[in-house]
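Lab channel / #folding
Pinned by the channel admin:
"Please post every new chain as: sequence first, then the structure tokens as a reply. Keep commentary short and put observations after the output so the thread stays searchable."

First post following the new format, from NK:
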Amino acid sequence: MNKQILYFGDSSLNGAAAYLAGLMVHSGWAFDYMPSDQRATRALIEPLRSLFIISDYSARMLADDLQWQIAAAVQRGAGLLMIGGWESFHGSGGNWDKAALGKILPVEIAAQDDRINCDQPALVVLKAEHPITAGLPWNDRPPTIGGFNAVTAKPQAQVLLEVERYAVRRSGNATAFEARDRQALLVAGMHGAGRVAALATDAAPHWVGGLVDWGHARVTAKAPDADEVEVGNLYTQFFRQLLGWTGKLQ
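Reply from TO:
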């Protein structure tokens, strides 16, 4: 039986990939995994998949003909999700702006380094209601992130979440928060019969920031051959809904 998800990147299962891998196992989804330092093979691409995930995986590690093969699978109904990181979107060596799969994402990717590291508060705020964002307390308990890739939503795509950055100043015992700007953080769209999504921040430290602990309860998860992770229950729900919608997973 083919595993329904193919997951590229996030270093290794003993590193950042343990987070998303653990959540997939917790949700009951089977997946194949390709570490960031290994090139994709045709044998990995050919099985039928419901969802392709790319996160901190350079475009140079995925040959052009294999990218076109994935794009064709998405056109027929598979899902494609890119998650932010230093080798996602353009990043520092991601270079997906020049790649076939980058072209079918619901965002325009910069031709230069698009990484933004947040040393002051950066809140995740709701822009639009959607199955991915449903049932989560975006207004009552907005989470924070530590960084993101600056992307621009394509005209036909839908911005679901934005990141709002704040400048914070202290004067005596008073603290003043001043909103600086908002940028697209989660964008969803279609490519043919397939769903495509771009989450511009990371699923794992350090860019994930406080989002990884979002919630009032703890969830422990572990994928085979991966480190165990402990995360917030709302973080878990958000990523389950993100992967579930994009890949049409049950």
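NK: Residues 233-247 form the longest helix (15 residues).
TO: also worth noting, The first strand starts at residue 5 and ends at 9.
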